[in-house]
Design a protein that fits this description.
The complex is a heterodimer of chains A (356) and B (1070). Chain A has 10 helices and 19 strands. Chain A is α/β, with parallel strands linked by helices and 356 residues long. Chain A folds into 2 domains: 145 residues, Carbamoyl-phosphate synthase small subunit, N-terminal domain (Glucose Oxidase, domain 1, 3-Layer(bba) Sandwich); 200 residues, Class I glutamine amidotransferase (GATase) domain (Rossmann fold, 3-Layer(aba) Sandwich), CATH 3.40.50. In chain A, strand 17 and strand 18 form a beta hairpin. The radius of gyration of chain A is 20 Å and the shape is globular. Chain A starts with a strand and ends with a helix. The mean pLDDT of chain A is 96. The longest helix of chain B is centred in the middle third of the chain and has 19 residues. In chain B, the strands form 7 sheets. In chain B, strands 27, 28, 29, 30, 31, 32, 33 and 34 form an 8-stranded mixed sheet that branches. With 1070 residues, chain B is α/β, with parallel strands linked by helices. Classes of the chains: A alpha/beta (356), B alpha/beta (1070).
Chain lengths: 356, 1070
């Protein structure tokens, strides 16, 4: 069956339908990872977005146990060529069936490179995947333009707390759309992790008497999370060590009066170099963010940049002055992508032990 | 960290002659690194014995020494040039070994020179088997159970503890030379004994066999601050067991999940960090296909064939970055040369698929074993880029220029299913074609995977190609089917053949009518995330955006490259293509290169203004012509690959710069050429053109045996043989006609005389001949396999004048604009023409460098309308240079089990080196030293010569006797020598009782075997063949021509006390 991708600038790509045939409008972004499509599809941070994979051959190793959450939250999936026969010792099925099962609409067979260049040059746009051919584009475009990702955190956060027992430090993980591997990275290091819904208040968290608090990644514009920001400010005021990733990093910044801004087309992939401000070392990191903390005029009394992106100089991490708070924009939990910065979890544990 | 300012002068060590396992990739890496160093204001002193390289040009380095890569010669150059540093990681294993030896001997310390790039300790940790194993154990990286052994019994004992099969890897050898897989004790003893002999340190690693696991490689970079990145990973389609150089390789990996990928990536970074490498490094893994279990196979702490492939596959210039790191820069300080915005501290992301296929020499060595093992056999490789795997595979197949163009190119239709299943177990270069046949017969994919261990995903892709074949054959050609067939890169003519009703032109028309045309995509390192500046393109038929950039407005020239490195068409043609490109650029042209060889300098993205990484076939070239509309094309520089496309280019309406195609024809076509000779009054050996064996016998009998039989329009004397009787004619014609012949076969009277060769440039009026080269071996041995001397030592002035006159006459008669190469025979003062090639030749780089006359540059300029006089050159034969330069062929016979090594009219050498010195003796000594002939050792030799050579053998034997050699000879040779006053010890033939000649060879006390083959060509069981093969396989130097033997005796007799290094960058003889 044919499928169409309609962009808000009027561009239409014609390809073949994959996954669900339902019509879906979302923000169209691209990811440059060559492996890890399943992790991308199940990363809650993509809620409300259609993901274009720049690598043309997707689904080669099928569906494995590598999902980063219970289900796929992406608004659409755009690939060049989906594998017909997947192959891997852990393969449990093929990706097309997975997309259908997860009700993810998708399109294959389009020039994903041209689409990527368009998103790069014009900036992230909204788009609609549909199996219907519309000749009159004007009303469609209006509808597409009107779409907003909105407050998606509440859709992706867990409904009930979840507990991963451990013998080490007690960590409360505020789930803003957390990837499974954040909790696992801590738990693997012995931490006792309690995952709590995004709606959990600061007082509730503090009452759990944790050794440390972890703020997770998550989808959408950080500025829409006004309620959570207020709670995070309260957490800031305590002396409990805090480590935050991605959306958590942005929310901590906003809680302290530091602004965030939208990037033209975001950073999504597994090859982003980030430089440690203290050591000068560069690490290759896994990234997925459309917004970034604006460090212009940053008051060093509040926080100092700890990591910077080597490609475009944007902020990749903050160290809060006089506080045991450390936040990063990239994903030390990887999955997909390089594990080079996994040591940051160790640093968090050190921080909880008073070593930092 | 900023650049280390204490580094002012760096010596770069090249890799020497091209041999199997060490080819053009090191010229690419070395050239790129030298340019990168010079860009930083560093003075570069280059040493490489290989004259056919671009790195040994005065444009590339400040001082250029084409000297033997031996300790002695390097030491004298270091003393003379006083570099402060040496960069040893760019010259392959050869360069690395030398750097290590210089360091270990304490010489570098004494001279105040340091190794930069990677330290000696690091190299040792990675290269020494035991240290490597210990290091891996220390950081918890698994290696296959293994043990380093120094004797066979130890190996057998160890293997009994881990069980067969085992892999044997000799330390410090090239291309896995001497290695292999042993399935039982007999095999183990055989391979192990050979491997120990070949290893520089007499050491072999015996390892648990993990054949059948996935073979995955990572290319990693690290700077002195400890920052690491991976440039690329690659997956071998052929599982562990086949040398990666002989495997079909795909980049990036296709069947690895992110977990697998990151597990190995993290391991690679841990390894490079623990080893402390600063620069590039290659890590090879075996990955169990059924679990997360993996083993580190090998680490190469230097640039390699794989790093060249990774550079071309991603656009990330590994050698350039490695050179900058050696100067002290960190990755985040080095600009990404493709995007010019980002930095070298990132990891390339591909949005396409790359396939590499090795170019194996079995078309040249028909007796060689075709099986692929851990010992590399390929002479070169091709790479292709496409947006899907099937398309990339199809493009790579047709880039090979080996009479293959699709998965139907090897026919297995006559096999029964049982036979095909049986043959499916054979691991050779035809395996994918057998799988394709299996797919056509609907064999179970799973079962084919079980037999071959090739991943199911690849088998399914092969199957898909055969499904499209079937549809093209059985269905009417609809636009949809055509679109899909083109998307996976079926050429138009194959579609037409399968369809059976449409012609190629009709298929093409149908494509145009339906908008199915090639569009070009850019290789940009970042999957379009950033805007790229570098026009490095590949084609796809899947529609979409065409990124090939608009034109600069300058005149455009298309330079056709020479494709994969093969015997007969080597790196020298890349030298010519690159120099021609530079010359046209200087003339104000926009330059466009088309080539498909990832090992070469020409496919570096900053050589031409535009690079099209594409197969060199008519259809692929036509697509580029439609895109670029060049003002002209040059075909003179790309060897036979480019020449073959001349007619097609003209039909596309492209002007050919330089000599007119019809004049090229007049030189290549036998009858037309006879007219040329008649007109110019130049004699040649009598002969005729034939198509069949009957005709050939008729001509041969008319001329009288022996005769030379050869196909026309070939390079490297492919299929050329000397026939002594009717039977042999039958045999040779059979071999030649196995490949379809569009052109006639030539049968000439065989004249035995001195063979002489010239390269010349002609501007239409004047001819410049830089020099005359004389071959040491008489006619009958291919010019590429002969030792060649400039200036010609035994040719009189009168004959030289005749050669000059004949060259001028022929160049004028053929209206040559550009280069011409002519081979002559001097027989008793009479000059005969053997052949005329109105194009660049194998000797062009050699003669250019030794005479200081840049003839490729001049050729390109005369094509643009300049005259030789205007450029400051006096026409005619240039005065002889102050140096003698001797080109020595280098062979790779030890890598090719079962290959016949005796020399003849068909070329067999893979590379060459040069000896250059003020005197003939010193030059000859250097030439043998450069070729790795390191004698005397035991002063014992074996002679076994045919009857014809016996009289001359006496003289040779006397000379070696005088040098203190003990001579063993087989019965008739021994008898003859003793009768003629030279003492020779008689040894039994192979099938006679011990001790026989074989025991002698396997006793490892023989320096040299002189074995001239019996007339006629024989089967593999003959004594001579077995003696030669065994000599080669045990590392004994083996000579098969009397002239070569005399030359060696001469070199040994006159070994100079002192060698004088010659800086050829200072030669300019305008």
């Amino acid at each position: 069956m044919k499928a169409y991708l309609y962009l808000e600038d009027g561009t239409v790509y014609t390809g073949e339908s994959i996954g669900s045939t339902r019509e879906s409008i979302s923000e169209v972004v691209f990811n440059t990872s060559m492996t890890g499509y399943l992790e991308v599809l199940t990363d809650p941070s993509y809620a409300g977005q259609a993901v274009t994979m720049t690598y043309p051959l997707i689904g080669n190793y099928g569906v494995t146990d590598d999902a980063e959450s219970e289900r796929s939250y992406v608004g659409g999936y755009i690939v060049r060529e989906l594998a017909r026969v997947p192959s891997n010792f852990r393969c449990k099925g093929n990706l097309n069936d997975f997309l259908k099962e997860q009700d993810v609409p998708g399109i294959q067979g389009i020039d994903t490179r041209a689409l990527t260049k368009r998103l790069r040059d014009h900036g992230t746009m909204n788009g609609m995947i549909s199996t219907v051919k519309y000749d009159d584009l004007a009303p469609i475009i209006e509808k597409i333009k009107a779409y907003e990702v909105g407050d998606v955190v509440s859709q992706v956060t867990c409904k009930e707390p979840k507990h991963l027992p451990g013998k080490g430090k007690k960590v409360v993980l505020l789930d803003l759309g957390a990837k499974r591997h954040i909790a696992e990275s801590l738990n693997e290091r012995g931490c006792d992790v309690t995952i709590v819904p995004a709606s959990t208040t600061a007082d509730e968290i503090i009452a759990m008497n944790p050794d440390g608090i972890m703020l997770s990644n998550g989808p959408g514009d950080p500025k829409t999370c006004t309620g959570i920001i207020k709670e995070i400010k309260k957490l800031y005021e305590t002396d409990i060590p805090i480590f935050a990733i991605c959306l958590g990093h942005q929310l901590m910044a906003l809680a302290n009066g530091i602004d965030t801004k939208k990037l033209k087309y975001g950073h999504r992939g597994g090859n982003h170099p980030v430089k440690d401000a203290l050591t000068g070392r560069v690490y290759i990191s896994s990234q997925n963010h459309g917004y970034v903390v604006d460090t212009e005029g940053l008051d060093p009394k509040i926080a100092k940049p700890s990591f910077t992106n080597v490609n475009d100089g944007t902020n990749e991490g903050l160290m809060y002055t006089g506080k045991n708070i450390y936040t990063v924009q990239f994903h030390p939990e990887a999955c997909p992508g390089p594990q080079d910065s996994a040591f940051l979890f160790d640093r968090f544990i050190d921080m909880m032990e008073g070593g930092l | 960290m900023p650049r280390d300012k204490s580094i002012k002068k760096v010596m770069v060590i090249g890799s020497g002659p091209i041999v199997i396992g060490q080819a053009a990739e090191f010229d690419y890496a070395g050239t790129q690194a030298c340019r990168s160093l010079k860009e930083e204001g560093v003075e570069v002193c280059l040493v490489n014995s290989n004259p056919a390289t671009i790195m040994t040009d005065k444009d590339i380095a400040d001082e250029v020494y084409i000297e033997p890569l031996t300790l002695k010669s390097l030491e004298s150059i270091i003393k003379k040039e006083k570099p402060d540093s040496i960069l040893p990681t760019l010259g392959g294993q050869a360069g690395l070994n030398l750097g290590m030896e210089l360091e270990e001997s304490g010489f570098l310390k004494e001279q105040g020179v340091r190794l930069i790039g990677t330290t000696a300790q690091t190299i040792k940790k990675a290269e020494d088997r035991q240290e490597f194993k210990d290091t891996m154990e220390k950081i918890g990286e698994p290696v296959a159970a293994s043990e380093v052994v120094h004797d066979v019994e130890h190996g057998v004992r160890f293997t009994n503890t881990i069980g067969y099969p085992v892999v044997l890897r000799p330390a410090y050898t090239l291309g896995g030379s001497g290695g292999g897989i042993a399935h039982n004790e007999t095999e183990l003893r055989e391979i192990l004994e050979n491997g120990l002999r070949l290893s520089r340190v007499h050491e072999v690693l015996v390892e648990r066999c993990i054949a059948g696991w996935k073979e995955i490689e990572y290319e990693v970079m690290r700077d002195a601050a400890g920052n690491c990145i991976t440039v690329c990973n690659m997956e071998n389609i052929d599982p562990v067991g086949v040398h990666t150089g002989d495997s079909i390789v795909v980049a990036p990996s296709q069947t690895l999940s992110d977990k697998d990928y990151q597990m190995l990536r993290t391991s690679a970074l841990n390894i490079i960090t623990e080893l402390g490498i600063t620069g590039g490094c290659n890590v090879q893994y075996a990955l169990n296909p059924d679990s997360f279990e993996y083993c580190v196979i090998e680490v190469n702490p230097r640039v390699s064939r794989s790093s060249a492939l990774a550079s071309k596959a991603t656009g990330y210039p590994i050698a350039k970055v490695a050179a900058k790191i050696a100067l002290g820069y960190t990755l985040d300080e080095i600009k990404n040369a493709i995007t010019k915005k980002t930095y070298a501290s990132f990891e390339p992301m591909l949005d396409y698929c790359v396939v590499k296929i090795p170019r194996l020499p079995f078309d040249k060595f028909i007796t060689a074993k075709r099986t692929l093992t851990t010992q590399m056999k390929a002479t070169g490789e091709v790479m292709s880029i496409c947006d899907n795997f099937c398309g990339a595979l199809m493009k790579a197949i047709r880039s090979l220029e080996q009479h293959v163009d699709s998965l139907m190119s090897y026919d297995f239709t006559d096999r029964t299913d049982d036979e095909l299943w049986k043959e499916m177990e054979i691991v050779d270069d035809r395996r994918i074609y057998r799988i394709a046949e299996g797919c056509r017969r609907k064999f179970s994919q799973k079962k084919m995977h079980d037999v071959t261990k090739i991943d199911l995903w690849f088998i399914d892709r092969i199957s898909y190609i055969t499904e499209i074949e079937r549809r093209l054959k059985n269905e009417d050609l609809t636009p949809e089917l055509l679109r899909e067939a083109k998307r996976i890169e079926f050429p138009d003519y194959i579609i037409a053949n399968l369809n059976g009703k449409l012609s190629e032109d009709e298929v093409k028309q149908m494509r145009y009518d339906n908008g199915i045309v090639a569009s070009y995509r850019m290789v940009d390192t970042c999957a379009a995330e950033f805007k790229a500046e570098t026009p490095y393109y590949y084609s796809v038929y899947s529609g979409g955006e065409n990124e090939a950039e608009e034109t600069s407005g300058k005149k455009k020239v298309l330079v056709l490259g020479s494709g994969p490195i093969r015997i007969g068409q080597g790196i020298e043609f890349d030298y010519c293509s690159v120099h021609a490109t530079w010359a046209f650029e200087k003339e104000g042209f926009e330059t466009i290169i088309i080539n498909n060889n990832p090992e070469t300098v020409s496919t570096d993205f900053d050589i031409a203004d535009k690079l099209y990484f594409e197969p060199l076939t008519k259809e692929d070239v036509e697509n580029i012509v439609r895109q670029e509309k060049p003002d002209g094309a040059v075909v003179q520089f790309g060897g036979q690959t480019a020449i073959k496309l001349t007619q097609d280019l003209m039909e596309m309406g492209v002007t050919i710069y330089g000599t007119d195609a019809k004049d090229v024809d007049r030189a290549e076509d036998r009858e037309l050429f006879d007219e040329v000779l008649q007109k110019t009054g130049i004699p040649r050996a009598a002969g005729g053109t034939v198509f069949t064996a009957e005709e050939a016998k008729k001509v041969a009998n008319r001329l009288g045996y022996p005769v030379l039989v050869r196909p026309s329009y070939v390079l490297g004397g492919q299929g050329m043989q000397i026939a002594f009787n009717d039977e042999e004619i039958e045999q040779f014609m059979g071999i030649i006609n196995r490949i379809a012949q569009e052109h006639p076969i030539l049968v000439d009277k065989y004249l035995q005389g001195k063979e002489v060769e010239v390269d010349a440039v002609c501007d239409g009026t004047d001819i410049l001949i830089p020099g005359i080269m004389e071959h040491i071996e008489r006619t009958g041995i291919h010019s590429g396999d002969s030792i060649s001397v400039y200036p010609a030592p035994t040719i009189g002035d009168e004959v030289k004048k005749k050669i000059e006159d004949a060259t001028i006459k022929l160049a004028k008669e053929l209206h040559v604009i550009g280069l011409i190469n002519i081979q002559f025979i001097d027989m008793d003062g009479e000059v005969y023409v053997i052949e005329v090639n109105p194009r660049s030749s194998r000797t062009v780089p050699y003669i250019s460098k030794v005479t200081g006359i840049p003839i490729v540059d001049l050729a390109a300029k005369v094509m643009c309308g300049h005259t030789l006089r205007e450029m400051g050159y006096k026409p005619g034969l240039a005065p002889e240079a102050d140096y003698v330069a001797i080109k020595m062929p280098v062979f790779s016979f030890e890598k090719l089990r079962g290959a016949e090594i005796s020399l003849g009219p068909e070329m067999k050498s893979t590379g060459e080196c040069l000896g250059i010195a003020p005197t003939f003796n010193e030059a000859l000594y250097k030439a043998f030293a450069g070729a790795g002939v390191d004698l005397p050792k035991y002063k014992q030799m074996i002679m076994t010569v045919n009857d014809k050579d016996k009289p001359e053998a006496v003289g040779v034997a006397k000379r070696f006797k005088a040098l203190g050699y003990k001579i063993y000879a087989t019965r008739s040779t021994a008898k003859y020598l003793n009768e003629h006053g030279v003492e020779a010890l008689w040894v039994n033939k192979i099938n006679q009782e011990s001790p026989n000649v074989m025991d002698l060879i396997l006793g490892h006390k023989i320096d040299l075997v002189i074995d001239t083959p019996t007339e006629g060509h024989g089967d593999k069981t003959r004594d001579g063949f077995l003696i030669r093969r065994n000599a080669i396989e045990t590392g004994v130097y083996c000579i098969t021509a009397m002239d070569t033997a005399n030359a060696l005796a001469h070199a040994l007799e006159s070994e100079p006390d002192k060698v004088t290094p010659v800086d050829i960058a200072k030669i300019d003889r305008r």
